[in-house]
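Please, structure for the following, as tokens.
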Amino acid sequence: MVIRTVQAGEIENLAWQHDLLVVASGRATLSNIFPRVVEQSPYTRPQRLVVAGLFRGIGYTEPPSLELTVVPGSGEILVVPMQSFEPGLTGIGIFITADGAFEPLRRLHYDDDPPAFATTVLDLLRVHAAAIYERVEPGAFGVSRPIDLCHAAITPTVRRGFVTLANGRNAIALGDAHVVIDPITGQGANNASHAAGVLCDAVRDATVFDRAFCERVERAICAYVVPVSDASNARLRSPAPHFRELISAAARDQAVADLYADGYNHPDRFWAMAGDAGRTAAFLRARQSPDRPVAAEL
């Protein structure tokens, strides 16, 4: 048996050569061979324009930590310390919704006026993320290098995990070819690596790579990646009332706040609770009993 990761334009030429094709690229139109799952893909266009880059001149928290600022109606600001080609860099991602307070950044191009770009980002931090702005080093703030800045507009999409080609061979989708997740929760690479691990285990234990094999792999992968996709999609719209209650409880109860933060490590388990109004209510009721451990709810 041979498995090969397929790049754009290769699939028709390679389909007859191999027992199983693995499509791990969502670029161009390659992912379109896998049908879109409508009920799990609520958006047909990007919900955010993301401007992200590496910046100098922001001091770290102690201990260094990821920080997320939510500005209703405008978007989100994600700040995280980075290890890169020089020490002390900070990654900043600004998620821009249409017609909100972050809108001026949508129309700016760094190459046209680097100082104006840096000033606009700094002003957004000053107005909407004061705790981060307080750590800015005067005169040192700015994009580390022009190549360290990117713009992205992504339409979250869930596709079928495999397809049977005209010649009867099967192709399995991994990563962005299967599930494209908005970067708002930073789970895209995690989803892809999880799916790759599931497929590797299945290949190790299998002797036949037929449709039944593909169906098993698809179910196993989707058990994790679809809830993670649902959780990410939910954060792109106004939070449901029960989710607001959970966030409010996290502001008052450190154990709830810790559980919310741990949801980035275990997003599938977190969303099983936080994505359902009844389960969230049961969890919050249980928190009224100080002897009940929070972890028992996940």
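The chain has three domains: 3-43+156-234, 49-152, 241-297. Residues 294-298 have pLDDT under 50 and may be disordered.
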